[in-house]
Every structure is written in C-alpha cells, then in structure tokens.
Design goal:
The protein is an alpha/beta fold. The protein has 2 domains: about 150 residues, Aspartate Aminotransferase, domain 1, CATH 3.90.1150.10; about 230 residues, 3-Layer(aba) Sandwich (Aspartate Aminotransferase, domain 2), CATH 3.40.640. Helices cover about 40% and strands about 20% of the residues. The chain has a 7-stranded mixed beta sheet, sandwiched between helices. α4 runs parallel beside α11. The longest helix is centred in the C-terminal third of the chain and has 25 residues. The two termini are about 35 Å apart. Homodimer.
Length: about 400
C-alpha cells in the first residue's frame, strides 16, 4: 500500500467514534465473498446487516445503476421520475398496499409510519388518541422518535427527554397488550421477527391477536419489516407467513440490495393523512436508489428465487444443528429464511461478540443480536459453495472457541 492508501487507524483519527469497526478494511466483494486490503477472503454471512440481498457487486444491480447514472441523478420532490413510479407499482402489485412513501433508511420509514399513525388519529378521532404500543427488546431505528419506540433503553436513555405516549410491553404476550390498549391508542408497532432483540419470531396467535385488538380499538397495526422484508424470511414479506395484514409496513435494508432506500407501504385511507407538505425528505424516491431497488425487487419477488431462500435456510439450519450436536454451544437455533439466530447456552452466555470475532479470524463474517445470540443474515442468493465454505469456517472458529 502506498502512503495515500487509507488505513484502519484513520477511522480513529478522522471519524466520530460512533462505531468500533473491525481491524481490517474490506475493499472488494463478489457474490458472498469479500476481500480485504491484504487479499484475505471472508465468506459474508452478515450481508451488510441483512442489506446485501443479492450479494456484492451484483451485475444486474450494477447495470441498473449505471444506466440510471447516465440519465438522471436527482431532482428533488418537486418532481417525480420514472424509476420511482415503476418501483411503487411493483410494491403495490406484490403486497397489500395501495400507496407507497419513499425515504432513505429503515429509521426514516418507521418515523414516517409513526407520524402517519398519529396524524391519522388526530384527524379522525382528535388529539387525545395519540398513544403508541411497542415491545421490549424491539429495535426501530436511531431517530429520537424511533429510538423511543424501540424497547431497548441502552439506545435511548442518554437522549432524554424522549417523546412521550409510548408504552412498552412484553413481546409475544397478548395479555400484556390487552392491559394497556385503550381508545387512546393510535398504533401498535411490532417486528414479525425481533431482529436486534435476538432473532425472536412472533407467534401466529400473537400477531393475529394484535390485528384483532387494533380493529377493536381503531388503532393502526404497523409492521416493522425493515429486516424481515424483501425475501429475507422466504416470503416476500414476513406478514405473508402469518396470514395477518398490517395497516402500515416499513421496509428498507434488502429493498435496495445495498443502495440506501426505505419506504412505507399502506392503504389509501391511511395515506391521505400524509397530505402535501405534512412530511417529506429531500432524497426520498431518488432515481438512482429506486432504479437499483426496482431491479433488486423484480429479482427477489420471483417464486423460484424465494423457494431458493427456503432451501438455503434448511441447509444452514441443518448444518448448525449438526455442529451444535458436536460442540453443545447453543441452547436454541431459530429464525426464518436467511435470518437465523443461535442463542448461546449458559456456559457461553454473553460471549456472542467474542465468537463473532473468532469467526472473522477464520474468514467468515457473522453478526450478533445482543450478547447471547450469533446472527446470520447472508445474501439471499448465496452460492452453495460459499454457504458450505462459510459453514466450514464457522465450524473451525467455534471449535477453536470451545477448546481455548
């Protein structure tokens, strides 16, 4: 490397210390394999935190981006554009939705969903209908509103005073919801699978019960599908696995295949609450982002592609279960599609980060979901060779870990 090549120490010198990135710098990716500055390869089981749904440097996404880059980059929301209209049409055709609002991230999508819920309730029922029910261990983003709705005080307590009117109750506990829901409730926001909270799937009875309670109390049911959406669970959106239709759904991460984009999906009757001037974003619906997302979504929505996610899930879970029979590290392996969490047993509790770091040493990238869960969220099209190679590398890391 020459003297102008950035090094890891530059992060500590120049960037706000919000993150603690790995010691190596990835410089190139192909499919689900990433290479660092020294040429070392890593099998990517993290997927950019469930973002890189089609892997790295996907040729079809590259082509969509380059074609749009030669046409129109940005105009602002005083104008519409062809890629955003085409993507909105796809989303409406493929889901429960009748209207779409585009933004740039999952946090912004959840912010828009919560603002919509309060404004709709204000217009329909008056100012007193403003309370929101959310769940402990939930994660909805890092804006002040969404971090307040998230049920993890470690992310919000340093930024008080926080927005009020938000009640947190236990996940998968309908009785807890019944105890706090009232005519003052304007919305319930829930992840069909809690991602950052430990990869914990909702039960069908829980989500169906929330739907019934929201109908009874005239509250909007918001599904946060930022992490579970766009093929991640083996269905296009996780709500399709439960037979429960939300009123508003937030989507981001995999939607852009690596290009930043977010959106909310909703029905006509609720969309009217966000009238002209009531909400907005400079970059939302940007032609570059929506061109890439349109191509990614058109690939992922195909039935054959989604069935491939299911088969990859089975291979990964079977392999992890076999590994656990040999090493006895996990007390539970759970999730759906290619969002899988392995919860450590008592012997190794609190050591997910250390295991993830040892996996890096063996050349495989994983995630954590709290201190006790190792999380996998690879590309939805990860090749059979990369999947097997990554599992072998993870096996080596876990074997080393239990023997140290």
């Amino acid at each position: 490397m020459n003297s102008d090549t950035p090094v890891r120490e530059d992060f500590d010198h120049y960037l706000v210390p919000t993150y603690a990135p790995a010691a190596f710098i990835p410089v190139r990716g192909e499919g689900s394999t990433v290479f660092d500055q020294s040429g070392k390869s890593y099998i990517d089981f993290a997927g950019g935190i469930a973002v890189n749904a089609l892997g790295h440097a996907n040729p079809e996404l590259q082509e969509a981006l380059m074609q749009q880059a030669g046409k129109l980059w940005h105009m602002g929301n005083g104008y519409t554009n062809e890629p955003v209209l085409a993507l909105a049409k796809q989303l409406v055709e493929a889901t429960f939705a009748e209207k779409v609002f585009f933004c740039n991230s999952g946090a912004e999508a959840n912010e828009a969903a919560l603002k919509l819920a309060r404004k709709y309730a204000l217009e329909q029922s008056g100012a007193e209908k403003n309370e929101i029910i959310a769940f402990t261990s939930a994660f909805h983003g890092r804006t002040l509103f969404t971090v307040s709705a998230g049920g993890q005080p470690k992310y919000s307590q340093d930024f008080a005073p926080l927005p009020g009117g938000i009640h947190h109750v236990a996940y998968n506990d309908l009785d807890a919801v019944r105890a706090v829901i009232s005519e003052r409730t304007c919305a319930v926001i829930v992840e069909p699978i809690q991602g950052e909270g430990g990869v914990i799937p909702a039960t069908t009875e829980f989500l169906q019960g929330l739907r019934a309670l929201c109908d009874e109390y005239n509250a909007l049911l918001i599904f946060d599908e930022v992490q579970t959406g766009v093929g991640r669970t083996g269905s296009l959106y996780a709500y399709m696995n439960y037979g429960v239709e939300p009123d508003v759904l937030s989507t981001a991460k995999a939607l852009g295949g690596g290009f930043p984009i977010g959106a909310i999906l909703t029905k006509d009757r609720y969309a009217t609450a966000l009238s002209v001037g009531s909400h907005g974003t400079t970059y939302g619906g940007n032609p570059l982002a929506t061109a890439v997302a349109g191509k990614a979504f058109s690939i992922i929505r195909q039935p054959a592609f989604l069935s491939g996610v299911v088969s990859r899930h089975q291979f990964l879970v079977d392999t992890l279960q076999q590994l656990n029979r040999e090493l006895a590290v996990f007390r539970d392996i759970r999730g759906a599609g290619l969002l899988i969490g392995c919860e450590l047993n008592e012997t190794y509790a609190g050591q997910a980060k250390q295991i993830s770091q040892m996996a890096v040493e063996e050349g495989v990238l994983t995630l954590i979901a709290g201190p006790d869960v190792v999380r996998f969220a690879p590309a939805l099209n990860i090749s059979a060779d990369e999947l097997e190679n990554g599992c072998q590398r993870f096996r080596a890391a876990l074997t080393r870990y239990v023997q140290k």
